[in-house]
Specification:
This protein has helices at about 1-30, 70-90, 115-125, 140-145, 165-185, 205-215, 225-235, 290-295, 305-310, 310-320, 325-335, 335-350, 355-385, and strands spanning about 35-40, 45-55, 60, 65, 95-105, 130, 195-200, 220, 240, 255-260, 275-280, 300. By secondary structure, it is of the alpha/beta class. Strands 1, 2, 3, 4, 5 and 6 form a six-stranded mixed β-sheet that branches. The structure holds nicotinamide-adenine-dinucleotide.
Amino acid sequence: MGSMKINEQMRGALLEEAKMRDVFEMMDRYGHEQVIFCRHPQTGLKAIIALHNTTAGPALGGCRMIPYASTDEALEDVLRLSKGMTYKCSLADVDFGGGKMVIIGDPKKDKSPELFRVIGRFVGGLNGRFYTGTDMGTNPEDFVHAARESKSFAGLPKSYGGSGDTSIPTALGVFHGMRATARFLWGTDQLKGRVVAIQGVGKVGERLLQLLVEAGAYCKIADIDSVRCEQLKEKYGDKVQVVDVNRIHKESCDIFSPCAKGGVVNDDTIDEFRCLAIVGSANNQLVEDRHGALLQKRSIWYAPDYLVNAGGLIQVADELEGFHEERVLAKTEAIYDMVLDIFHRAKNENIPTCEAADRIVMERLKKLTDIRRILLEDSRNSARR
Ligand code: NAD
């Protein structure tokens, strides 16, 4: 009887080990440094924090709350998103690396101040290796509770010393990305008279619409919230046309701008676009990297989402270093040069724009690693002296 129990225990331990090996395999696949599982039964907290790459500095990335169907789904999401953050931080030239946190739960039912205070403890326990804030399903007020336990939170309301709404710099970054696209395609960064189709006129889409109308562009808009569309039509008059939400990506336009959901460039849509460029705020617009190559084949210039939507990240990173609005605006404007650089590289090397962007990230990370090595050698040498 005793030996049966031991065998069962061993089997259980081996099974656990196999599961862990899977997590390590997943970490290797994406190149992660650290994954932390957080559990607190009293508040119901189940969360995962993933630190992808801290070569440039502490990991930075939002905290999502979604009723994931399984732990595997949450793990896959946090690994994929945190890797994206490394790329985003690198191109935005901020001294942070990629990280992300996901909470497995329904934001409408499972939130409580206590849950966020516990999150504050977990994140604080990482001693500055990870900073986080709002993302899907969480809002600045949630992190007011978390911030009482640790200083590792950003994007707090202005009344709590935060930098406020990130959709403003995000929209501005997308707008600069469009100006750069215009410069590349038409030799001028003026958007006057250009037609832009915006999918989703929420916080970012609406701000972008305003910037575009002010710049003299003509906008087609669509949103599942038809009331919102009609309000904007009323506000901007004949500068705006409301189109069918299921057909917006098929609209004839100069620039298509996905500002709602990810995965817009996929096997079904790839042949349906009637635009010359895609520049929008939605995260993960390409379902797979190969869709970037397919866009290249169709001569559609894709401005990588993680570059043009980095305005919000730039603001949050700046908040952690002492918020300065002019610095945020200048760094956000730099998205213009980066988009141009990527488009020219892609053209000269005949590669998809997403590949050109990835190569720049790799070059930057390599340079950073070299700098870190030199600094480490320097301090070792001075310690020996
Ligand atoms: P939001 O929720 O305020 O707006 C999204 C809008 O899209 C809503 O009006 C919604 O009704 C609409 N929508 C949803 N599904 C749609 C569909 N199938 N077709 C058309 N419209 C649809 O979100 P947001 O803050 O404006 O962000 C927009 C996108 O940009 C998101 O993908 C977000 O992840 C990304 N993003 C936002 C920020 C930021 O600072 N807010 C930063 C980086 C990236």
